[in-house]
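Render this sequence as a predicted structure.
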Amino acid sequence: MTQDLGTTRRLIQAGRTSATDEIERCIAAAQSDACAHAFTRTDFATARQRASQPGAQHLPLAGLAVSIKDLFDVRGQPTAAGSVVLADAPAAAHDCAAVARLRAAGASILGRTHMVEFAFSGVGTNPHFSTPVAWDARFGTLPGPARVPGGSSSGAGVSVATGAAFIGLGSDTGGSIRIPAALNGIVGFKSTARLVPASGVVPLSRTLDTVGALTRSVSDAIVAHEILAARRVTRSPAPLSAWRLAVPQTLFLEGMDATVAQAFARTLQTLRSAGAHIEEITLPEVAEALQINATGGFSAAESYAWHRHLLAQHGHRYDPRVRSRIERGAAMSAADYIDLLDARQRWSERMQAAIDGFDALLSPTVPIVAPTIASVAPADGQDPAQDAARDTAFAQANSLLLRNTSPINFLDGCGLSLPCHQAGELPVGLMVWHGPLRDDAVLNISLRAEAALAMP
Protein backbone atom coordinates (compact mmCIF):
# COMPACT_ATOMS: atom_id res chain seq x y z
CA MET A 1 0.00 0.00 0.00
CA THR A 2 1.16 3.56 -0.68
CA GLN A 3 3.10 4.97 2.28
CA ASP A 4 0.89 6.89 4.69
CA LEU A 5 1.26 10.35 6.18
CA GLY A 6 2.38 9.22 9.62
CA THR A 7 5.19 7.10 8.24
CA THR A 8 6.30 9.84 5.87
CA ARG A 9 6.29 12.45 8.60
CA ARG A 10 8.52 10.25 10.78
CA LEU A 11 10.92 9.79 7.87
CA ILE A 12 11.07 13.57 7.40
CA GLN A 13 11.85 14.11 11.07
CA ALA A 14 14.57 11.46 10.86
CA GLY A 15 16.12 13.24 7.87
CA ARG A 16 15.53 10.29 5.52
CA THR A 17 13.29 12.31 3.19
CA SER A 18 11.95 15.87 2.97
CA ALA A 19 8.68 17.61 2.27
CA THR A 20 10.13 18.94 -0.98
CA ASP A 21 11.06 15.43 -2.11
CA GLU A 22 7.62 14.17 -1.17
CA ILE A 23 5.89 16.99 -3.02
CA GLU A 24 7.75 16.00 -6.17
CA ARG A 25 6.59 12.41 -5.75
CA CYS A 26 3.01 13.60 -5.29
CA ILE A 27 3.19 15.88 -8.33
CA ALA A 28 4.53 12.98 -10.42
CA ALA A 29 1.61 10.84 -9.21
CA ALA A 30 -0.89 13.62 -9.97
CA GLN A 31 0.47 13.81 -13.53
CA SER A 32 0.41 10.04 -14.05
CA ASP A 33 -2.14 8.18 -16.14
CA ALA A 34 -3.51 6.55 -12.98
CA CYS A 35 -4.58 9.97 -11.68
CA ALA A 36 -6.00 11.24 -14.99
CA HIS A 37 -9.06 13.47 -14.48
CA ALA A 38 -8.82 13.29 -10.67
CA PHE A 39 -7.93 16.99 -10.48
CA THR A 40 -9.91 19.83 -12.01
CA ARG A 41 -7.24 22.37 -11.07
CA THR A 42 -3.64 22.07 -9.85
CA ASP A 43 -1.21 24.54 -8.37
CA PHE A 44 2.12 22.75 -8.20
CA ALA A 45 4.17 25.93 -7.86
CA THR A 46 2.37 27.01 -4.70
CA ALA A 47 2.56 23.49 -3.27
CA ARG A 48 6.31 23.40 -3.87
CA GLN A 49 6.71 26.80 -2.23
CA ARG A 50 4.69 25.74 0.81
CA ALA A 51 6.62 22.48 1.22
CA SER A 52 9.94 24.31 1.16
CA GLN A 53 9.07 26.82 3.88
CA PRO A 54 11.33 26.66 6.94
CA GLY A 55 9.73 24.87 9.88
CA ALA A 56 7.08 23.13 7.81
CA GLN A 57 8.39 19.73 8.92
CA HIS A 58 7.50 20.48 12.53
CA LEU A 59 3.79 21.03 11.79
CA PRO A 60 1.27 18.15 11.97
CA LEU A 61 1.09 17.81 8.17
CA ALA A 62 4.80 18.60 7.66
CA GLY A 63 4.30 20.37 4.32
CA LEU A 64 2.82 17.24 2.72
CA ALA A 65 0.30 17.21 -0.12
CA VAL A 66 -3.43 17.58 0.39
CA SER A 67 -6.18 17.69 -2.25
CA ILE A 68 -9.36 19.76 -1.94
CA LYS A 69 -12.73 18.66 -3.30
CA ASP A 70 -14.16 21.31 -5.63
CA LEU A 71 -16.88 22.03 -3.07
CA PHE A 72 -14.74 24.01 -0.64
CA ASP A 73 -13.82 27.67 -0.82
CA VAL A 74 -10.11 28.21 -1.44
CA ARG A 75 -8.89 31.77 -1.26
CA GLY A 76 -8.47 33.31 -4.72
CA GLN A 77 -10.25 30.50 -6.60
CA PRO A 78 -13.84 30.03 -7.78
CA THR A 79 -15.75 27.17 -6.20
CA ALA A 80 -17.50 25.37 -9.07
CA ALA A 81 -18.83 22.33 -7.18
CA GLY A 82 -18.22 20.18 -10.23
CA SER A 83 -20.62 22.22 -12.35
CA VAL A 84 -20.38 24.40 -15.43
CA VAL A 85 -23.13 26.52 -13.90
CA LEU A 86 -20.72 27.96 -11.32
CA ALA A 87 -17.63 27.98 -13.54
CA ASP A 88 -17.68 31.77 -13.74
CA ALA A 89 -18.41 32.32 -10.03
CA PRO A 90 -16.25 34.99 -8.37
CA ALA A 91 -13.14 33.80 -6.59
CA ALA A 92 -13.52 33.06 -2.90
CA ALA A 93 -12.28 35.87 -0.69
CA HIS A 94 -11.27 33.49 2.11
CA ASP A 95 -10.48 29.85 2.72
CA CYS A 96 -13.34 27.93 4.21
CA ALA A 97 -12.82 26.77 7.79
CA ALA A 98 -11.67 23.27 6.81
CA VAL A 99 -9.10 24.51 4.30
CA ALA A 100 -7.84 27.15 6.74
CA ARG A 101 -7.28 24.48 9.40
CA LEU A 102 -5.39 22.24 6.96
CA ARG A 103 -3.17 25.15 5.91
CA ALA A 104 -2.46 26.07 9.52
CA ALA A 105 -1.44 22.45 10.15
CA GLY A 106 1.16 22.64 7.38
CA ALA A 107 -0.70 21.26 4.36
CA SER A 108 0.61 21.90 0.85
CA ILE A 109 -2.50 22.13 -1.32
CA LEU A 110 -1.84 20.34 -4.60
CA GLY A 111 -5.13 21.17 -6.28
CA ARG A 112 -8.89 20.80 -6.48
CA THR A 113 -10.46 17.44 -7.21
CA HIS A 114 -13.15 16.11 -9.50
CA MET A 115 -16.56 15.50 -7.96
CA VAL A 116 -20.11 14.64 -8.88
CA GLU A 117 -21.94 17.81 -9.85
CA PHE A 118 -23.17 19.47 -6.66
CA ALA A 119 -22.23 16.28 -4.74
CA PHE A 120 -25.50 14.55 -5.55
CA SER A 121 -24.55 10.92 -6.33
CA GLY A 122 -22.54 8.06 -4.95
CA VAL A 123 -21.34 6.76 -8.32
CA GLY A 124 -18.71 9.34 -9.28
CA THR A 125 -19.59 10.23 -12.88
CA ASN A 126 -19.95 13.79 -14.16
CA PRO A 127 -21.03 14.53 -17.76
CA HIS A 128 -19.21 17.87 -17.78
CA PHE A 129 -15.80 16.33 -17.17
CA SER A 130 -14.13 12.99 -17.80
CA THR A 131 -14.52 10.55 -14.92
CA PRO A 132 -11.38 9.47 -13.01
CA VAL A 133 -10.86 5.72 -12.90
CA ALA A 134 -10.93 3.79 -9.63
CA TRP A 135 -7.51 2.73 -8.34
CA ASP A 136 -6.57 0.20 -5.68
CA ALA A 137 -4.22 1.80 -3.17
CA ARG A 138 -3.25 -1.62 -1.80
CA PHE A 139 -2.49 -3.54 -4.98
CA GLY A 140 -2.36 -1.03 -7.85
CA THR A 141 -4.41 -0.84 -11.01
CA LEU A 142 -7.72 -2.70 -11.07
CA PRO A 143 -8.04 -5.61 -13.49
CA GLY A 144 -10.45 -5.49 -16.39
CA PRO A 145 -12.44 -2.51 -17.66
CA ALA A 146 -12.28 0.94 -16.06
CA ARG A 147 -14.50 1.25 -13.01
CA VAL A 148 -16.19 4.19 -11.32
CA PRO A 149 -14.32 5.77 -8.39
CA GLY A 150 -17.41 6.30 -6.25
CA GLY A 151 -18.79 9.68 -5.33
CA SER A 152 -19.33 12.29 -4.74
CA SER A 153 -15.72 12.78 -3.55
CA SER A 154 -14.47 10.90 -6.61
CA GLY A 155 -11.26 12.79 -7.36
CA ALA A 156 -10.41 12.97 -3.67
CA GLY A 157 -10.44 9.19 -3.45
CA VAL A 158 -8.34 8.69 -6.56
CA SER A 159 -5.85 11.40 -5.51
CA VAL A 160 -5.17 9.58 -2.24
CA ALA A 161 -5.20 6.07 -3.70
CA THR A 162 -2.69 6.90 -6.45
CA GLY A 163 -0.28 8.68 -4.11
CA ALA A 164 -0.94 12.23 -5.29
CA ALA A 165 -2.22 13.36 -1.88
CA PHE A 166 -1.87 12.15 1.68
CA ILE A 167 -5.26 13.63 2.62
CA GLY A 168 -8.20 14.21 0.33
CA LEU A 169 -10.62 16.75 1.79
CA GLY A 170 -14.16 15.63 1.03
CA SER A 171 -17.75 15.82 2.13
CA ASP A 172 -20.21 13.09 3.09
CA THR A 173 -23.99 13.61 2.91
CA GLY A 174 -25.01 10.00 2.35
CA GLY A 175 -21.67 8.25 1.94
CA SER A 176 -19.61 10.51 -0.30
CA ILE A 177 -16.37 9.94 1.67
CA ARG A 178 -16.84 6.30 2.62
CA ILE A 179 -17.98 5.09 -0.82
CA PRO A 180 -14.90 6.27 -2.77
CA ALA A 181 -12.75 5.02 0.11
CA ALA A 182 -14.25 1.55 -0.29
CA LEU A 183 -13.93 1.50 -4.07
CA ASN A 184 -10.30 2.71 -4.05
CA GLY A 185 -8.90 0.61 -1.22
CA ILE A 186 -8.30 3.48 1.21
CA VAL A 187 -9.74 4.86 4.46
CA GLY A 188 -12.59 7.36 4.69
CA PHE A 189 -13.97 8.77 7.94
CA LYS A 190 -17.32 10.51 8.38
CA SER A 191 -17.42 12.11 11.79
CA THR A 192 -20.45 13.29 13.70
CA ALA A 193 -21.44 16.20 11.47
CA ARG A 194 -21.42 18.92 14.13
CA LEU A 195 -17.76 18.34 14.98
CA VAL A 196 -16.36 19.95 11.82
CA PRO A 197 -17.59 23.34 10.54
CA ALA A 198 -19.18 23.33 7.08
CA SER A 199 -18.96 27.08 6.52
CA GLY A 200 -17.62 28.04 3.11
CA VAL A 201 -18.77 24.77 1.57
CA VAL A 202 -21.40 24.57 -1.21
CA PRO A 203 -24.23 22.69 0.54
CA LEU A 204 -26.17 19.66 -0.58
CA SER A 205 -28.09 19.15 2.65
CA ARG A 206 -27.50 21.49 5.57
CA THR A 207 -28.86 18.76 7.85
CA LEU A 208 -26.71 15.85 6.63
CA ASP A 209 -23.54 17.36 5.14
CA THR A 210 -20.34 16.31 6.93
CA VAL A 211 -16.82 17.56 6.22
CA GLY A 212 -14.11 14.91 6.45
CA ALA A 213 -11.12 13.28 4.84
CA LEU A 214 -9.94 10.32 2.83
CA THR A 215 -6.58 8.94 3.91
CA ARG A 216 -4.23 5.99 3.47
CA SER A 217 -4.56 4.61 7.01
CA VAL A 218 -6.74 4.85 10.11
CA SER A 219 -4.00 6.63 12.03
CA ASP A 220 -3.93 9.26 9.26
CA ALA A 221 -7.72 9.54 9.53
CA ILE A 222 -7.30 10.37 13.22
CA VAL A 223 -4.72 13.06 12.42
CA ALA A 224 -6.97 14.57 9.75
CA HIS A 225 -10.00 14.52 12.03
CA GLU A 226 -8.11 16.17 14.89
CA ILE A 227 -7.08 18.98 12.55
CA LEU A 228 -10.48 19.45 10.94
CA ALA A 229 -12.44 19.20 14.20
CA ALA A 230 -9.85 21.07 16.31
CA ARG A 231 -10.11 18.40 19.00
CA ARG A 232 -8.07 15.54 20.37
CA VAL A 233 -9.20 11.97 19.93
CA THR A 234 -9.04 10.01 23.17
CA ARG A 235 -6.81 7.03 22.41
CA SER A 236 -7.54 3.68 23.97
CA PRO A 237 -5.02 0.85 24.39
CA ALA A 238 -7.85 -1.69 24.69
CA PRO A 239 -7.54 -4.73 22.41
CA LEU A 240 -10.29 -5.92 20.10
CA SER A 241 -11.48 -8.34 22.78
CA ALA A 242 -12.43 -5.42 25.03
CA TRP A 243 -15.04 -4.06 22.64
CA ARG A 244 -18.57 -5.32 22.08
CA LEU A 245 -19.33 -5.36 18.35
CA ALA A 246 -22.42 -6.19 16.31
CA VAL A 247 -23.24 -7.07 12.71
CA PRO A 248 -26.76 -5.90 11.79
CA GLN A 249 -28.49 -8.34 9.45
CA THR A 250 -31.32 -6.14 8.20
CA LEU A 251 -30.62 -4.47 4.85
CA PHE A 252 -26.84 -4.13 5.24
CA LEU A 253 -26.15 -7.68 4.06
CA GLU A 254 -28.80 -7.88 1.38
CA GLY A 255 -27.83 -8.06 -2.28
CA MET A 256 -24.09 -8.43 -1.68
CA ASP A 257 -22.19 -9.56 -4.73
CA ALA A 258 -19.89 -12.55 -4.38
CA THR A 259 -16.69 -10.53 -3.94
CA VAL A 260 -18.10 -8.40 -1.13
CA ALA A 261 -19.78 -11.36 0.58
CA GLN A 262 -16.54 -13.36 0.55
CA ALA A 263 -14.41 -10.47 1.78
CA PHE A 264 -16.85 -9.53 4.55
CA ALA A 265 -17.21 -13.11 5.84
CA ARG A 266 -13.43 -13.53 5.82
CA THR A 267 -13.00 -10.22 7.64
CA LEU A 268 -15.39 -11.19 10.42
CA GLN A 269 -13.55 -14.48 10.86
CA THR A 270 -10.20 -12.68 11.00
CA LEU A 271 -11.49 -10.25 13.62
CA ARG A 272 -12.94 -13.07 15.71
CA SER A 273 -9.62 -14.91 15.50
CA ALA A 274 -7.99 -11.72 16.82
CA GLY A 275 -10.27 -11.82 19.85
CA ALA A 276 -13.23 -9.68 18.75
CA HIS A 277 -16.63 -10.43 20.27
CA ILE A 278 -19.14 -9.99 17.43
CA GLU A 279 -22.89 -10.54 17.75
CA GLU A 280 -25.49 -10.73 15.00
CA ILE A 281 -28.52 -8.50 15.48
CA THR A 282 -31.57 -7.78 13.32
CA LEU A 283 -31.88 -3.96 13.61
CA PRO A 284 -35.11 -3.53 11.62
CA GLU A 285 -34.97 0.23 12.22
CA VAL A 286 -32.48 0.55 9.34
CA ALA A 287 -35.12 -0.40 6.77
CA GLU A 288 -37.45 2.21 8.24
CA ALA A 289 -34.96 4.95 7.37
CA LEU A 290 -35.31 4.18 3.66
CA GLN A 291 -39.09 4.35 3.94
CA ILE A 292 -38.94 7.69 5.76
CA ASN A 293 -36.73 9.12 3.01
CA ALA A 294 -38.60 7.60 0.08
CA THR A 295 -39.72 10.99 -1.27
CA GLY A 296 -36.19 12.41 -1.38
CA GLY A 297 -35.52 13.31 2.24
CA PHE A 298 -33.42 16.23 3.40
CA SER A 299 -31.11 16.15 0.39
CA ALA A 300 -33.96 16.80 -2.04
CA ALA A 301 -35.73 19.43 0.08
CA GLU A 302 -32.65 21.37 1.13
CA SER A 303 -30.82 21.18 -2.19
CA TYR A 304 -33.92 22.46 -3.99
CA ALA A 305 -34.12 25.42 -1.63
CA TRP A 306 -30.51 26.30 -2.52
CA HIS A 307 -30.73 25.57 -6.26
CA ARG A 308 -34.21 26.73 -7.24
CA HIS A 309 -33.12 30.12 -8.58
CA LEU A 310 -30.13 28.64 -10.41
CA LEU A 311 -32.38 25.97 -11.90
CA ALA A 312 -34.79 28.61 -13.20
CA GLN A 313 -31.95 30.26 -15.14
CA HIS A 314 -29.55 27.43 -15.92
CA GLY A 315 -31.47 24.20 -15.42
CA HIS A 316 -30.66 23.02 -18.94
CA ARG A 317 -26.94 23.07 -18.09
CA TYR A 318 -27.21 20.72 -15.10
CA ASP A 319 -26.40 17.03 -15.22
CA PRO A 320 -29.92 15.64 -15.90
CA ARG A 321 -29.40 12.92 -13.31
CA VAL A 322 -28.54 15.50 -10.66
CA ARG A 323 -31.27 17.91 -11.70
CA SER A 324 -33.98 15.25 -11.43
CA ARG A 325 -33.00 14.43 -7.85
CA ILE A 326 -32.85 18.07 -6.82
CA GLU A 327 -36.26 18.75 -8.37
CA ARG A 328 -37.87 16.09 -6.20
CA GLY A 329 -37.61 18.69 -3.46
CA ALA A 330 -40.04 20.98 -5.29
CA ALA A 331 -42.91 18.65 -4.40
CA MET A 332 -42.16 18.74 -0.67
CA SER A 333 -44.23 21.21 1.33
CA ALA A 334 -43.23 22.91 4.56
CA ALA A 335 -45.53 20.49 6.37
CA ASP A 336 -43.75 17.55 4.69
CA TYR A 337 -40.41 18.92 5.82
CA ILE A 338 -41.58 19.34 9.43
CA ASP A 339 -42.95 15.79 9.34
CA LEU A 340 -39.53 14.61 8.14
CA LEU A 341 -37.79 16.39 11.01
CA ASP A 342 -40.15 14.78 13.51
CA ALA A 343 -39.83 11.33 11.92
CA ARG A 344 -36.05 11.56 12.03
CA GLN A 345 -36.09 12.46 15.71
CA ARG A 346 -38.35 9.53 16.60
CA TRP A 347 -36.36 7.13 14.43
CA SER A 348 -33.02 8.27 15.86
CA GLU A 349 -34.22 7.68 19.39
CA ARG A 350 -35.30 4.12 18.54
CA MET A 351 -32.12 3.47 16.59
CA GLN A 352 -29.81 4.71 19.32
CA ALA A 353 -31.65 2.65 21.93
CA ALA A 354 -31.19 -0.45 19.75
CA ILE A 355 -27.42 -0.03 19.31
CA ASP A 356 -26.49 1.64 22.59
CA GLY A 357 -25.20 -1.58 24.18
CA PHE A 358 -22.52 -1.99 21.51
CA ASP A 359 -19.25 -0.13 21.10
CA ALA A 360 -19.50 -0.24 17.29
CA LEU A 361 -21.28 -1.97 14.45
CA LEU A 362 -19.71 -3.67 11.44
CA SER A 363 -21.11 -3.72 7.92
CA PRO A 364 -19.89 -3.81 4.33
CA THR A 365 -19.38 -0.18 3.33
CA VAL A 366 -21.12 -0.91 0.04
CA PRO A 367 -22.70 -4.22 -1.01
CA ILE A 368 -21.20 -4.28 -4.52
CA VAL A 369 -17.83 -3.73 -6.15
CA ALA A 370 -17.37 -0.68 -8.37
CA PRO A 371 -19.49 -0.82 -11.55
CA THR A 372 -17.73 -0.27 -14.86
CA ILE A 373 -17.74 3.29 -16.14
CA ALA A 374 -19.16 2.13 -19.47
CA SER A 375 -22.23 0.60 -17.81
CA VAL A 376 -23.30 3.84 -16.11
CA ALA A 377 -21.83 6.49 -18.42
CA PRO A 378 -23.86 9.69 -18.93
CA ALA A 379 -26.20 9.78 -21.92
CA ASP A 380 -24.56 10.99 -25.11
CA GLY A 381 -27.61 11.04 -27.41
CA GLN A 382 -26.09 8.61 -29.88
CA ASP A 383 -28.31 5.65 -29.04
CA PRO A 384 -31.54 6.36 -27.07
CA ALA A 385 -31.97 2.72 -26.07
CA GLN A 386 -28.41 2.53 -24.76
CA ASP A 387 -28.81 5.84 -22.95
CA ALA A 388 -31.96 4.52 -21.25
CA ALA A 389 -30.17 1.32 -20.22
CA ARG A 390 -27.28 3.30 -18.76
CA ASP A 391 -29.66 5.58 -16.85
CA THR A 392 -31.36 2.52 -15.36
CA ALA A 393 -28.02 0.94 -14.46
CA PHE A 394 -26.87 4.22 -12.94
CA ALA A 395 -30.00 4.54 -10.78
CA GLN A 396 -29.63 0.95 -9.54
CA ALA A 397 -25.91 1.37 -8.82
CA ASN A 398 -26.43 4.71 -7.07
CA SER A 399 -29.11 3.23 -4.83
CA LEU A 400 -26.93 0.27 -3.85
CA LEU A 401 -23.78 2.32 -3.32
CA LEU A 402 -25.58 4.70 -0.94
CA ARG A 403 -27.76 2.13 0.82
CA ASN A 404 -25.43 1.07 3.65
CA THR A 405 -23.82 4.44 4.28
CA SER A 406 -26.80 6.82 4.21
CA PRO A 407 -28.51 5.57 7.41
CA ILE A 408 -25.46 6.70 9.39
CA ASN A 409 -25.94 10.25 8.06
CA PHE A 410 -29.64 10.13 8.89
CA LEU A 411 -28.65 9.08 12.42
CA ASP A 412 -26.07 11.91 12.58
CA GLY A 413 -23.66 9.13 13.40
CA CYS A 414 -20.05 8.45 12.56
CA GLY A 415 -18.53 5.78 10.37
CA LEU A 416 -15.19 4.75 8.96
CA SER A 417 -14.49 2.62 5.89
CA LEU A 418 -11.25 0.66 5.75
CA PRO A 419 -10.12 -1.78 3.06
CA CYS A 420 -10.66 -5.50 3.72
CA HIS A 421 -9.98 -7.13 0.33
CA GLN A 422 -7.05 -9.27 -0.70
CA ALA A 423 -4.81 -9.37 -3.77
CA GLY A 424 -6.74 -10.45 -6.82
CA GLU A 425 -10.04 -9.02 -5.52
CA LEU A 426 -11.65 -5.73 -6.42
CA PRO A 427 -11.60 -3.27 -3.48
CA VAL A 428 -14.07 -3.89 -0.66
CA GLY A 429 -14.62 -1.73 2.42
CA LEU A 430 -15.43 -2.66 6.00
CA MET A 431 -17.53 0.03 7.70
CA VAL A 432 -17.14 0.52 11.45
CA TRP A 433 -19.91 2.81 12.72
CA HIS A 434 -22.08 4.05 15.56
CA GLY A 435 -24.35 6.93 16.53
CA PRO A 436 -23.57 10.59 17.23
CA LEU A 437 -20.47 11.51 19.24
CA ARG A 438 -19.17 7.94 19.35
CA ASP A 439 -16.31 8.99 17.06
CA ASP A 440 -13.45 8.07 19.36
CA ALA A 441 -14.69 4.52 19.89
CA VAL A 442 -15.16 4.05 16.14
CA LEU A 443 -11.64 5.32 15.46
CA ASN A 444 -10.01 3.20 18.15
CA ILE A 445 -11.81 0.04 17.06
CA SER A 446 -10.92 0.79 13.44
CA LEU A 447 -7.24 0.98 14.42
CA ARG A 448 -7.45 -2.47 15.99
CA ALA A 449 -9.40 -3.89 13.04
CA GLU A 450 -6.90 -2.48 10.56
CA ALA A 451 -4.02 -4.07 12.48
CA ALA A 452 -5.78 -7.44 12.64
CA LEU A 453 -6.52 -7.41 8.92
CA ALA A 454 -2.90 -6.55 8.14
CA MET A 455 -1.57 -9.64 9.94
CA PRO A 456 -0.39 -12.51 7.70
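Summary. The chain has a mean pLDDT of 97. The chain has two domains: 5-229, 241-288+343-454.
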